[in-house]
Amino acid sequence: MFSELTRRLATQPLLAGLAVALSVVIAILGLMPSVYAAQVMGRFTAHGQMGTLVTLSLGLVLAILAEMGLRTLRHRLLEGICLSADDSLSVEILSRTGEAARGPAIGALEMIAGTYSAAKIAAFMDVAAVVLYLAALWLLSPAVGVAVSAAMVAAIAVELALSRIAAVAGAGRDGARGGIFSATEAGTVLSAVVHWMDQGAAVARVANVRETAMGAANSAAYAFVLAVGAVMVVDGTLSAGTLFGIGLIASRAIGTALKAAGTLNDLKRGQPAMEAVVRFLQSGKGSAS
């Protein structure tokens, strides 16, 4: 499933290495809002010096702008890698495809380009940030590290379960679309179209439930971490400022992990198209199905 991603990165190792290095810097910059929250609650609220608040705020703005710029640069690097791979694959496929098989071949190429894209690769590279954030939380407090890890596992389990449901719904819609082309009589075609539209509505409902559940899971995880940290603040083992910073780190770590889990499902959905193209190239026949 990851072979195509690694193959694409291996074709241009220099650009891939730069993208990985940028991912590490992006992960570090992602800690800045948490540091800002901890510093504001610790230093500014204790002394009320506006100069301190302004300095910290300017530093945060610069960190946010730097992260945005590096994310854009990383996307451009990965985009160049993916476009080059898509172009090469398209030339190879279409030069060996007959007129009858051109439509399915283009459909498979479109699926591959959308699945193994720069955004998908970037989502997996951001897993390095999740590791960094978890390490930081464990260093700050092992108890908080356990709480965040448990909340993350639970949230990812919900995402994977809903992704599976979404995949089944998507397969039903694709099957209904195939039924339209296999229908022969006018009434049968109309019935097949209605069924296809109903399946499309079901896919949209599942997507809405998935999005809502992910927001709820992230919020619940954030609240759970804050509750654990609040107990430690009362016990005197954690400062209030640190708790604010921990909450932000935890929320970002869980959100990034959920995005990677969702991307994993996208790879599973696009894998059959990649396998079809590989079989076509190996067989040398004029069919990509």
TrEMBL record:
GO MF, one annotated term: ATP binding
Primary location recorded for the protein, binned into one broad class: membrane
Topology relative to the membrane: Multi-pass membrane protein
Alphabetically ordered keywords of this record: Membrane, Transmembrane, Transmembrane helix
GO cellular component: a single term: plasma membrane
Keyword Cytoplasm: no
Ranges that cross the membrane: 47-66, 121-140, 146-167, 179-197, 220-249
Annotated ABC transmembrane type-1 domain residues: 18-269
InterPro entries: ABC1_TM_dom, ABC1_TM_sf
Compartment(s): Cell membrane
Record-given protein name: ABC transmembrane type-1 domain-containing protein
Species whose genome carries this gene: Magnetospirillum moscoviense
